[in-house]
Amino acid sequence: MGTKRVHMNQWWVLVAVLPVLLQGCFVDLKERGTEIDPLLLSQLQPGLSTKADVLRVLGVPTRNSVVQDREAWMYDYSIEKHSVLFLGLYNEERKTIQQRGVAVLFADERLYSFVFME
Q: What are 36-64's pLDDT values in tens digits?
């Protein structure tokens, strides 16, 4: 009889503690794209540097675009936060917490300028 009572008490402790153990939070940060170091840009000279020079120094752009009526290579960078919260309920959130980039503009196959984007 005494052993059965001890097992019953352990069962109720487990039932009381289990919901607390199932609560939790998961946070994941992901970097997307390429962050361009301003020191790398200093290696490129408007009017002199070619597209090949830009590829060698900065790498492959994230995307191509047109900015100020000029061909532009875009180097986008962002940090995204993904969080999941378990508190008896399920809550998921995705949020961009930082976003910036550089647009490299060309004129006649040569570097024209670069523009920082926030």
A: 888 999 999 999 999 999 999 999 999 99
Residues contacting residue 58 through CB under 8 Å, at least 6 positions apart = 34, 36, 40, 41, 44, 73, 75, 102, 104
How far apart CA 72 and CA 108 sit, in angstroms, is 12
Domains of the chain (ranges; CATH) run 23-117 (3.30.1450)
Going by C-alpha positions, the residue among 40, 26, 110 that lies closest to residue 75 is: 40
**DSSP per position, 87-98:** SSSEEEEEEEEE
Instruction: Tell how far CA 107 is from the center of its chain.
Output: 31
Q: Calculate the alpha carbon distances from 65 to 56, 75, 102, 103 in Å.
A: 19, 11, 12, 9
Mean pLDDT of 62-73: 92
Q: Which tokens go with 40?
A: 């790398």
